[in-house]
Task: structure prediction
Amino acid sequence: MPKRTDINTILVIGSGPIVIGQAAEFDYAGTQACLSLKEEGYRVILINSNPATIMTDTEIADKVYIEPISLEFVSRILRKERPDALLPTLGGQTGLNMAIELHESGILDELGIEILGTKLDAIHKAEDRDLFRNLMYELGAPVPESDIIHNLDEAKRFVEKIGYPVIVRPAFTLGGTGGGICNNDQELEEIVTSGLKYSPVTQCLLEKSIAGFKEIEYEVMRDAADNAIVVCSMENFDPVGIHTGDSIVVAPAQTLSDREYQMLRNISLDIIRALKIEGGCNVQLALDPNSFQYYVIEVNPRVSRSSALASKATGYPIAKLAAKIAVGLTLDEIKNPVTGSTYACFEPAIDYIVAKIPRWPFDKFESAKRNLGTQMKATGEVMALGRTFEEALLKAVRSLETGHVHIEMKNANELTDAWIEKRIRKAGDERLFFIGEALRRGVTIEQIHDWSAIDLWFLKKLEKIVAMESTLTANKNDKDVLRTAKRLGFADKKIAELWETTQEAVYTFRKEQGIIPVYKMVDTCAAEFESQTPYFYGTYEEENESVRSDKQSVVVLGSGPIRIGQGVEFDYATVHSVWAIQEAGYEAIIINSNPETVSTDFSISDKLYFEPLTIEDVMHIIDLEQPIGVVVQFGGQTAINLADKLEANGVKILGTTLEDIDRAENRDKFEQALRELAIPQPPGDTATSAEGAMAIAEKLGFPVLVRPSYVLGGRAMEIVYNMEELAHYMEHAVEASPDHPVLVDRYLTGQEIEVDAICDGENVLIPGIMEHIERAGVHSGDSISVYPPQKLTDAQKETLVDYTTRLAKGLGIVGLMNIQYVLSDGEIYVIEVNPRSSRTVPFLSKITNIPMANIATKAILGQTIPAQGYPTGLADEQPGVFVKVPVFSFAKLRRVDITLGPEMKSTGEVMGKDATLEKALYKGLVAAGTEIKTYGTVLFTVSDKDKEEAIAIAKRFSTVGYRIMATEGTARSFEAAGVQTDVVEKIGAKGKTLIDVIQNGEAQLVVNTLTKGKQPARDGFRIRRESVENGVPCLTSLDTAEAMLRVIESMTFTAEEMPKAEVQHS
Amino acid sequence: MKKRLLILEDGTVFNGIAFGSDKASQGEVVFTTGMTGYQETLSDPSFYGQIVTLTYPLIGNYGINRDDFEGITPAIRGFVVRELEEHPSNFRCDMTLNDYLKSQDIPGIEGIDTRKLTRIIRSKGAVRAILTAANEEVNVEDIVAQLQATPLITHHVREVSPKAAYPSPGRGKRVVVIDFGMKHGILRELNKRDCDVLVVPYNTSAEQILAWHPDGIMLSNGPGNPADVTEGIETIKNLIGQVPIFGICLGHQLFALASGATSFKLPFGHRGANHPVKDLRTGRTELTSQNHGYAIDPESLANTDLEITHIALNDGTVEGVRHKTYPIFTVQYHPEASPGPEDSNHLFDEFIDMMEAEKEKKYA
Result:
């Protein structure tokens, strides 16, 4: 069927900020979809609140709105733009929920806007548990015994009937928020209560647990002519019971015979046909390992994380085709973009194995519960391809960048057998490594299967890996064994350890023996048809298919998995760098390991190598491609960390030299540079031991800021107020040594300022200056950033420009740099310089229309900034105010303290833009998911040092009509200052405590600055967690509270009585 | 670990590891892209005389079970895989793939770059090859010369067709299946529909078949070049117009030849479980299971009473025809699936309906 000509303009809804459960995969999907619709000649209007995405680049759609995805703002855009249709299936759950809300508000009918892709009733049928079950009954598809419940009593009645364990799945939530498995009454009460709260329709599905079944997924597509296909099957390493986003997943399914495969394929196609989806859909199934009994677990009527994975795993671009299907094209008339010769109506055949491993944030959140269940906790994922399962898995392990190069963990010999058993029985993020250790200790795979229900097929493969370790140890320098080990995916580093030699020696020996990887093409058809896709993976086989071209090439290193501190912003810069390299006339080659991103879309670069970002894997590609150099400054710390090893291997680092990178990152060298440039920084020093750190602190005076050098996202960074805290930090948080020095700085309170700049070696362009709402001490990634600065004087701006220019030139920056400053007592100090792309690059690029990564890349390749047509110095300020508001995923991470501090905790960001700061902040906060109420109750519990400041804020809240509640101490000081305050009891007291207030929803806002939350037992921690779990915004910085107050003030009118004439008694 | 060589007629040598039988074996190397269903594949009689390469690299994961065979004994000459799984995991598994192939005296080779082999077949077409033990006596030049001198086999069907007729009784429509190398799946589908089936050898005459008063005739799949099966073509010629006919794969080709069309050899065949076929009448595309090295020349159909009903979406080759006058339709692909997608399973229902309609017409 030809595409529809009765529609012209299509509005695409993006997925908003990156949160756990909804990450960069929707930037990939959205970007593909918008380009795909434009390719067909439609006018595309995009709305997304996330500025860090490629999809919000103005080239991607005809009109881009970076506005909150809320009924209010989307309606406004609909009225203004009057699109003919709306495509909601590419923006994750956010997009779908928005479409439903828009429909229910009546605006779609009013304006005559059609919903494309999946019709509303299909969304309802897939998402509403009751309707879904009815549909499954109609199709004769088995679903586990279950009941829809709306309150705790109904839940208890269901359990009385079928018994424990049961799974709780809240309706219409993302990544299983609020759900979980309950084994007893207490867990039932806890999880059901929270689940009901998170469900926008106060509805949960209680379901008989089928934990232990195989979990199988099918990615299916269907068009309006009812052609339906399976793009990819996937099998979870972890059996049912763990959210698929938190499971290790392999593609294709490995342990199914054709009969089982076809049985599940048939039902998946029946479902997509019954739902009449025009586009992509994900079907999750549970299969009994001992019979043909299966259950349908869940259906996602949209593109998803799994569809992004399936696209990268097979090469089949699901989102791109889903968009074309949505406008009426059918699969049998769309060419398969991979082969260019066959059609999209087929099922990819793959001839390799794909392994995906989630990337969890537990390295940052030590206190978080590491158990995995039905609620997703991972922030990102890595994927690897190989010709053996072992190879794919081990490549994925070393792609994680968690310090693992193999299925083993540090200090494993200290673990007790009982602990290992416990950690294998109860799934957690490190289960794979615990299994490795168990096998090393001789535990049988049958035993591990009993503990974990993981299929013996997978366990046998792990056993093979562990057996190879012994073989290697027993056969040092044996080239045949080496070849076999490489086929199993062993890293040189691991082999070197077993051979008691160096990684370099193994690498050299391998090259001498001709044991080097070849690169195979990902072609969707297992080589059946000739394909042109420049998408490759490395493996140890005979025939290499990746041919070096005659053109000069540049390699760009990507940023690996999305994690806290290294988000989609770095992928944004990577993609722009690739485009700039192509514009400059070179071939752009990208290496990355993240399946969610735009950069790993094979149509972005001239060549994509889907490989781990380790020195071994990167060097193999460089050996083959012989590029003129490697660009490392866009891939975050991942790429920067490889720079010295690359240079040691004779590879040219393009842009800022390794020496200069080191000068910015090495504390001593940096200090010296600053001294030479006469730019002030907070006093501080480098310590290589605990004693050293204490001596420095003694000299500087408390508070001090401590952190390890070479870190990203402020990991393990802390402000400590006394010797005791410092001693604790040095003992527990870091291991100080001459190789891993710790930086100790005087902590300066004041206004934090952030500047990004581009330098070509001589000229410096500063696109903009940003100031932070939160004072120094809160990580820049967790602060609200404001552009242009609202508080700085012209003289201060001049100083910033002067310092930035001198730093850029003085540090020999060629490319991008990011500087954090603090303005304290009228003096500007440099806190930190990052000789690379930063988190704010997309935000600033979009605001100022200065394509920073592009200009920087061209500068790296030798074009000066003026030659590119850009001015130098500080660019003219743009009209309006722009704010970048961080977004957190605390609801998904139990036991994590939400207090803002020097260590970054946010997972994503949104932008708010308007004429005034208040309006921009309002949009930013709304887009970040904060509900701003013009009246209500604010609950204060603040520490003594903050009381003074809190009084002023409480007073203003009271003035706009908010009721003030506080614990006794705070209330007393408020009352003394004339703020009427209701007292609530502390935790543990009789009567109504503040926990009751939070749980009963009596407070709309909590302001808490009580204690540092390193010990979860403390009251402050409980208050903050209760707020999160009950969905009440909890502000831990008075600056954020003040900003929110300003917004409320701007929205409301004061309620103040007339001043009484003071009666003079003289 | 015994070493084994796979030597192609173009002189390419693959060094791998032996499994299955120890004997040497010669045949035409083909590849199939199905990711599941190796048991069905290796027992499919249509692979007679061929050394089958699986493009999916991990084979044997779920072992061999008693249920999923498509023939009583495998007709393949050898099995080529990237990695043989010796530790299968599946509740139906009875034995490993290796043990099964040993029991059937079929040699296999693992540990070779099967993608490289596939790419050679893709560019050169199906090639003759030999599987032999790797030892010092192996002289590649001699073997290549021997391979190039080997004439093509022309008696495939005779080898895999039964020697005598046998019944598979039911209470429904009487169907005579002419077995040119039938997959069990065809019988399974007919039995599922309660047909009263009689399976007959490929060289049974039309007269004899009609003497059983069938409601319909099924022309089965089978191996090799359709032009070699002259007796079958003769029989079909005499059946056209007498009784409803449904043909699959080789059966489809033979019907077309019997109707005056011609066939040709495809460059490297269609083998796999993901081949899209477009039904020209409904416009719908179905994913099909395929296994054929020959196809019907569409131009040659111009002078026949047949019309094209199905085409392969990717290369436009003929995938299905029907007779313009008589109740006869045939398809190049496998609606019985096993292995592969079951999208076209409804064709068996259409066959039943066609027989029913014909009966009604007769007794109206």
